[in-house]
Amino acid sequence: MNLTAVKDENEIMERHIEDSLALIEPIRSSYLEHCGNSWENLRIIDVGTGAGLPGMILAIACPGWRVTLLESINKRCVFMEHVAGVTGLLNVQVVRDRAESLGQHTEYREVFDVAVARAVSEMRILAEYCLPLVRVGGLFVAAKGHDPQEEVRQAKKAITLMGASLLQTHPVKSFSKYGQRTAVICLKDGPTPRKYPRDPGTPAKAPL
């Protein structure tokens, strides 16, 4: 279905599956330390999940998690629904929409324990996509490369405007040949102002 440029099975395992699995430990440790006593029954949203990475992998590995896969492109949603059906996953919900629209939807706004995003956009845009969906006291976890410090620095204003703060940049154990990975973790300190997220397309065109 041309969902990813990577075709080789071993490379898919290294570049996509292992990278996705590597997010579990920073989510677990950060949530237990800052958000609650239990991490087995989290409600998670994967923003811009694409082919279900990392959300579908997290749902398989952590069956107690309730995972919402947010994607705006229909063929990717059809693929993920097929995968969920074939594997018998009951803890996955596929939602076809844009993050800017979902963030203003009462059913989804500020209800998730954790929002994750991988290979979607730069941090200052991701903050506006993801943090309006996270409950106060929850986490936003962005999967980034080996040196995201400048990108994170530029995103601090956007993170603050969304009612959050930068918690830590967590080195991620990855066996991928693409090198060290980093989980950028933000804590939602207070509610996001109602004007965010802005209209679809605006965050990418005019980052905060």
UniProtKB/TrEMBL annotation:
SUPFAM superfamilies referenced in this protein's UniProt entry, alphabetically: S-adenosyl-L-methionine-dependent methyltransferases (SSF53335)
Keywords: Cytoplasm, Methyltransferase, rRNA processing, S-adenosyl-L-methionine, Transferase
Top-rank taxon, per record: Eukaryota
A GO cellular component annotation in the UniProt record: cytosol
MF GO annotations: rRNA (guanine-N7-)-methyltransferase activity
Coiled-coil intervals, chain numbering: none
InterPro entries: rRNA_ssu_MeTfrase_G, SAM-dependent_MTases_sf
Disordered as annotated region, ranges: 189-208
Protein name as annotated: Methyltransferase
Organism from which the protein derives: Lithospermum erythrorhizon
Taxon lineage: Eukaryota, Viridiplantae, Streptophyta, Embryophyta, Tracheophyta
